[in-house]
Amino acid sequence: MKRLALLGMVAAALLSGSSAIAQTTLRIGLAEDPDILDPTLARTYVGRIVFAALCDKLFDIDDKLNLVPQLALSHETASDGKTVTIKLRSGVKFHDGEAMDAEAVKASLERHMTLQGSFRKPELAAVDKVEVADASTVRLLLKNPFSPLLAQLADRAGMILSPKAAKEAGDKFGLKPVCAGPFKFVERVQQDRIVLEKFPDYWNAANVHLDRVIFRPIVESTVRLANLKSGSLDLIERALATDLKEIKADPKLKLATQIEIGYQGLTLNLANGEAGKNGPFGKDPRVRLALETAIDRKALSDVVFNGEVLPGNQWVSPRSPYFQQKFPVPSRDVARAKKLLADAGMTTPIAVDFMVPNNPESRQAAEVIQAMAAEAGFDMKIRVTEFATSLKEAEEGRFQAFFIGWSGRIDPDGNSYIFHKCKAPQNNGHFCNAEVDQWLDDARKASKVEERKAIYEKVADKYLKEGAIIYLYHRLVIIAHTQRLESYVQLPDGLVRLVGVKLKP
Amino acid sequence: MLLFLGKRLLQLIPTLFFVSVIIFGLQQLLPGDPALAMAGEERDPDVLEQIRKQYRLDQPVYAQYLYWMGGVLSGDLGESMRLKESVLTLILQKFPVTLQLALMAIVISLAIGVTAGVISAVKKDTAIDYAVNLVSLWGISTPNFWLGIMLIFFFAVHLGWLPASGYVSPFEDFKLSMQTTILPAFVLGNSFAAVLMRHTRSAMLQAMTSDYVRTARAKGLAERVVILKHAMRNALTPVVTLGALELGTLLSGAVLTEQVFSIPGFGKLIVDSVFNRDYAVVQGVTLITATTYILLNLLADIAYVLINPRLRG
Question: According to the model, what pLDDT value does residue B307 have?
Fold first, then answer.
């Protein structure tokens, strides 16, 4: 027995103790394994977090969602709105030593616009031609005026790749990406880690204080947090709202939060397939309004998320400059909901096929909505569906209500056009209104915030009464990190920006 | 012997053919659309069309099968839609991880299961026997998922002895590799150890009452020698078979445990691929796993024949 105890102690001693890790290595826990690290072919939110360290864009955003220069220095749009001239930062190098100049920008944008399977193609659809004016100036000639373009260039469509590496690697570029960001690619082991190291020739290298960054995908949120608490990670993204209390109570940890630019809501099927045509929501807009009136957004936030999400009723959050104050978040009124249903001539209970993606937060929120809606006369039959299947079901109209969110885009157009326009790719509820279509196009042509906001007010007036989405709340972007991390700033897009960040020993 | 081997190898061809058809066919039954799953939020109709074309998803199922089979026969298992990486590379990357985890789990389960089984048989109907039985019942009924998270909290967060999750190759850093794999291997080994314990106990009880054990005792051998050299050696045969079977199962990946501990093995690869409808990866991994099983089976048959020549006919 003594020998056994001794053996145990030796084993414990051998196994304990952490290995020596360079003190300027930042270890980040991601909620998923990113897809391909090619800005042209990438499509996941989590991939954008890695790109923020790897690939600089023409523009970036500040905490108010204003555009700020990154690889570009300035931009100018011609009075007809059809030519955008962009001045580039000079002396910038890619990770392979090639020069980041107007030719490189042209090559990158053209790759985004033409490569087979490019997800950037629709984002740059307004661009007709890219011209090199001089070594540090590019001109984008547009088919039509398109005000959301610059916001697109502050995301993946604006990431500039080394033309040499892109040409050599073709569609395998993402296996060894070469960009002009603060960190360069070292290695990736699928589902295990992505390692980047400081790029000494970065244009803003003086403000990069980390030598290495390791991204580790850890799907289980509890395990991600355990890694942070045990010191195996320095920062985690998408911590759960229900874990906030525990994180706040830990003196070794710090929180960085922001309201997301996306939203969560209910997509209602108005006219998509049999389920839409025979369902309750296409019959009369008052049915849609009744369901919305039956829901208490504040209670939903309190019960499911400990009050840590922001109730909302529009496709932008109440913090956005595009939020329409004229349409405040409505409060719950069951009597009114019942009256609306009676006025619409509906007999209760109204059965609704309610599709909900299979994750704990969505399931809980759906159950709360189900209980609230029941009081007004809706019988929401929850159908928990695996995510990839739910996308197909939604596309083909096999649902009457669908609990789904959107990660959000910087420009309000990205949260509205593809959802609100007739036959648009994400318009799963098949809402269709010629006036709304016209306004959405007008908002793309207008360039001033006030002008666009006035147009969106008309959209809101119609869509919030008759549209296919009931907006419910905006989640909190929750980043938790060690106290040793200094100067970390969280922006509303949820990405992890590492320039200026320091890690104390 | 050569004739036997030739016959068995020839039989392998139709078996693998049927396996490949079943894998491909079952996958077509998965709901959802791979192009839509791949596009996620970015579902523009033109882009979806391009993806369908690029990965031949717009072609009839038999044409897709023939194209895939053509690739497999020339050693190309295809390419992951999501990662643009060759499926063979992914498999070669994951297999050593799963193998290490499986071997460690088997060693742990044999060490715990056999020891506990022997002790409980020798101390039959005593407090020790009951205690061992109780613990083994606990081992069988504890969900791996829960046990994994509890171990992480205790050893990583509370004591700070081990990393909470992740994986390091033993060729990179042996000590760190052991640190990262000991908890998942224990979780995997734990539930199987309980099964082994039960089998060892009953086999031992049977052996202990047999004639040769009585003879050994009559010869005046020490009880320890009787148990370890005579009874246990015979009782272990079915246990070893059981262990070999379990190894086969572990090699196809331990989905939940790999997920909890973020171990980048076969289980995690196949789960991610199914959720993302990354068909080429699902097909490749399943085919390789099935082939490994069939080959192991063949090796076992050959071993039987070598031991027992009567089976050669």
Answer: 61
